[in-house]
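ok here's Alpha/beta hydrolase family protein, seq below lol
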Amino acid sequence: MRRLVMALAVAAATLMPAAPAVAAPADFTATEVSFTSNDGVVLHGTVLAPASGGAARRPGIVMLEGAGNRGRSYLRPEAEAYARHGVVTLIYDKRTEGYSAVHRDFSLLADDALAGLRLLRDRPDVDPSHLGLWALSEGAWVAPLAANRSADVRFLITVGAVGITPAAQTAWAYGTYLRHAGVSGSLPRTMRGTVVQTTIDLGIFAESDFDALPAWQQVRQPVLNQWGQLDRDALPGLSSRLIGGALDRGGNTSHTIRIVDGTNHNLHRTAADGFDRLPDLPADYADFETAWIADPSLTAPSASLADEPAPPVFAAGDHAWVSSGVVLALLVAFAGFLVVGRRSKLGRPARWLAVLTPVTLVATYLYLMFLLVVAAKVTGPVVLGRPLPWLLLQLLALATVAATVAVAATWRHHLDLTTPGRIRLALLTATGALFAVWAVQWGLLLP
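and the structure came out like this:
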């Protein structure tokens, strides 16, 4: 019964008539569509097509979004540019079932792209022999998988493709953006190393070790790989060399590497040396791409790029569990301090330590989580090479260690304590010692 219901749902979605064209500028039309992926998930999108129809069939592209789920409107300016250049273009909302901030499956996203491609292939205004994928950033990890699965993919165009694993790319980008913000010292090391490794170990960095190069090596269709000269996310120098090398090793003789002057990761105009995300497209956007679709042998002069420094290498390990064990032991010791012999008079350093330890621990995790959410692109004011919140956290960590030393030094003054009082003092001292281990591990006690 369940299979029957799913089959009926898939059939209904497939046969659903397209919505009428919605209001759009006179040079193209926009039509709302729905299509179904292999697992039965229905996706919703918009097809933008040149307004002047005629009998001639036109090239078609399916656009693959970058990381996150911003919705089809995020790629609307690019889609409109291609439609104005005579290309029928599909943009669609990325699935929410099976895709989230902590779960992504590039193979599943490749199936979605091919489902969209089938929708375009069946349109009377699309030429199936000029049907391809356009992929941005994360989408360029997906595109070669899709190309290797279907002969319907006649060409690939990528923007900001990454030639290393998502984990290594993320760590490199953290360092790049923090350095641009004037941040030095332990925070970049913590973000590039401890934070990324912890997300991998906890299983919340899906596809962290995905290597796209084997898939690129199998691609036989014509490929146009493009990077902005001021791309601060995709390591354009290293990625262009690695992906170009994989295509060469696979025997692909029809691929073009293009570096676009003065543009950022999205091939948009930039007013901040590539560290912004302005919505403005260059005036000649899609000129070269549409000419290349008509003739994949077309080449264009490209700016030269040097390889970026080698990014770190990550593998699943036990770092997060060791850190979690330290934190758990710290919390147990602190809880014991709160429970045992609460009437014992331990003095001011003990009271300070009892307050500073949990406050510093929680505040550190909250700030690092904030940096994760904003991809280290928003740090707050920078003082002495440190974001002000991180500087305050380091000062709190130093104060916590100082309080621990002060508590340990008071042992000889508390020989008259009752047994519960001595236990409480020992637990508090252990809490401070464990905190120091944790603070070193997370960079709070490092320069």
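fwiw Confidence is low (pLDDT under 50) at residues 1-23. kinda neat tbh
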